[in-house]
Each structure stands twice: as structure tokens, then as C-alpha cells.
Amino acid sequence: MFNLNRQTGYAFIILAHLGRQQGYTSLSVLAKELNLPPQFASKTAGRLVKAGILKSKEGKNGGYQLAQEISKIKLLEILELFEGKLRIVGCQGRKHPCPHEAHCFHKKFFTGKFTNLIVKEIEKWNLGDVLTA
């Protein structure tokens, strides 16, 4: 099962809120209005800024805002920022050999064709698709 971690969920909450705002929104307002722990919201917003998804401005009228239109922010970019590369099977990306490798015939399918199919579909979606679903 594919589960989003808490920080990914917070990122979508922050992005959805900022997608409906004009101008900058302070971290304290984001944390209070969205009921997010301020330190976790700060860390999440910081990662979004470093990725170029948000922009930040210091000062009295500062805060965060989207760096581009919601239709230009790719869903896969957000997911990979907080979740890493999509992995369908638990052993995908392991650095050590699997004890079941001699009897495993499904890994190649799930790490190849299946993953590629899912990634190609997710690449079609943007933040606007998520916010209007």
C-alpha cells in the first residue's frame, strides 16, 4: 500500500492554503490557521522553498507564497521531494541482496513496467488537479 508520510501531508495542506491566498502568508499564520506544529511547518516550508515550489520573504510583510501557478507545480515533484523515488516493492533500491531473489519473479515487473506506468500517469498531474479533485 502506498502511504504518504506526515510531512508530505503537511506540504499539501500548506500548498493548498497558499494556492488560495494572494501575497505572502507568515509562518505563524500558516501554523495557527492550519493547526500545524510551527517547527514542522517551518521545516516543510523550507524544503518547498529550496525546491523552488515556494518563495519566501523576510520581514513584517513576509512569509511564504507559491513560486508559480498551481498548474505548473508537478505532483511528482512534490511527492519525490518528501517521499523519495517511487518504490512499489520493499526491496527496491536495497543495497544488499535479497534472500528470496532466486525465487522472486515479480520484482522485475513491479520495479520496471509497473512503476514506469504509475510514474508516467503521475507526471500528467499538477497541484491544481489535486486541489480541485
Outline of this structure?
The chain has 133 residues and is mainly alpha-helical.
Task: Report on the architecture of this protein.
- With 133 residues, the chain is mainly α.
- It has a single domain (6-131), classed as Winged helix-like DNA-binding domain superfamily/Winged helix DNA-binding domain (Arc Repressor Mutant, subunit A).
- Helices cover 49% and strands 6% of the residues.
- α1 packs across α3 and α1 packs antiparallel against α4 (75-83).
- The chain is elongated.
Write the layout of secondary structure elements.
Elements: H1 6-19, H2 27-34, H3 38-50, E1 54-57, E2 63-66, H4 75-83, H5 107-122, H6 127-131
Antiparallel strand pairs: 1-2
Helix pairs in contact: 1-3, 1-4
What is the CATH class name? Mainly Alpha
Low-confidence stretches: none
By secondary-structure content and strand pairing, the structural class works out as mainly alpha
The third-level CATH topology is: Arc Repressor Mutant, subunit A
CATH superfamily: Winged helix-like DNA-binding domain superfamily/Winged helix DNA-binding domain
Helix residue percentage: 40-55%
Q: What does the radius of gyration come to?
A: 18 Å
- Listing every helix as H and every strand as E from the N terminus to the C terminus, the arrangement reads HHHEEHHH
Shape: elongated
Q: Report the strand count.
A: 2
Count of distinct structural domains? 1
The number of distinct helices, counting runs of at least 4 residues, comes to 6
Question: Largest sheet, if any?
Answer: 2 strands, antiparallel
* End-to-end Cα distance: 21 Å
User: Architecture, according to CATH?
Assistant: Orthogonal Bundle
For the biggest β-sheet, the strand order reads 1-2
Strand content: 5-15%
Overall mean confidence score, pLDDT: 89
